[in-house]
Amino acid sequence: MVRLVRFFASTGYKRALSSLIESKLLSKVLDLFFVSGPYNSILSCEIEELLINQLLEVQDEELVGYLLRRYHLHKKILTAIEKEKRVCEGNERWASHGSMMQIANALNVNKRSKVFLRKNEPWQQFTKQTLRPFNQSSQVDDLSLPKRDPKLMQEIADLWSQRWDQFSFMISS
Question: pTM for this one?
Answer without folding.
Answer: 0.76
